[in-house]
Known about the structure:
With about 350 residues, the chain is an alpha/beta fold. The chain has 14 helices and nine strands.
Amino acid sequence: xxxxxxPGKNMSPQASLRTYLRSGGYQAWAQVRxxxxxxxxxxxxxHSGLTGKGGAGFSSYExxxxxxxxxxxxxxxxxxxxxxxxxSLKDRFLLENYPHKVLEGALILALIxxxxxxxxxINETAAASIDGFRRALQEAQxxxxxxxxxxxxxxxxxxxxxxxxxxxALLEVLQGGKPLPRKKPPFPIEQxxxxxxxxxHNVETAAHLPLIVAAGxxxxxALGIHGKGVTLCTxxxxxxxxxxxxxxxxxxxxxxxxxxxxxxxxGSKIKAVQPGGPSSGLLDSSLFELALDAGVLKxxxxxxxxxxxxxxxxxxxxxxxxxxxxxxxxxxxxxxCPRCRMETNMLDTIVK
Length: 352
């Protein structure tokens, strides 16, 4: 795959500040920091077509524009690294191997939307991610060349509970409350962490910003097929070559399964995939030529989501597999909404 968010596979990770600086790290942050009108970068982000990588796929530009327009001197940026979606490892991969890229992207985001405090939320079970990012933060704070421009950055761990992935439940946990979603409105951008305007973006979303600023929107878009940029995908342990891959958006699913994943570890034929984690619709083998693209997948009843690709072999019983998915959602339901609680439990019981 062409180099974009992640350098080529022949290059080592950029976990240390020295390594990151040698590769041009924090130059994009300096560009934004030294611009008299940081809001002009909103136009660059809009043209890049960047969307949130946490699952919803909402326009990053729209969220940033709305956040920048909120009144008040105190604003929060929350970088969501809770990563509770089964099979997704991309955020952990970035926090462990490219923590400075995440931090630089977060600083860029904060300055553009006028947030004075960044909270990086990391799953408490991801010890290597927590240690890696905290070490990178200490390095950057101790280096005068980085200059945080008065922006405060802290790390908070969150419990490994699925519902914490919902943004308002995440805010409740960060405030010391129970992991339960809030009623909306008000939305977090209006009234979020501790009652202040809060923008929530995924770890991977933040990591795209240094590349977009440094290379420009056109160059970023050119990394993908039909000008849609790149995304990170996680291939599970069922593949011969599991791991996190940078994929040009628009790549045929079959190419990802065969070239990146190398097919299934046991050599059996793949009969179905879920391209975006357990909440995305199943695609049978007749649809493997579809592009890995949010719009295309939506048209066929599926979703890109967090791009955690799960493959099912010809030997898998799909009733059993779907039953396991329903059991997961039944246990992960917060129980606040009667319809969700009852219908999820009912489906789980039926399939059992």
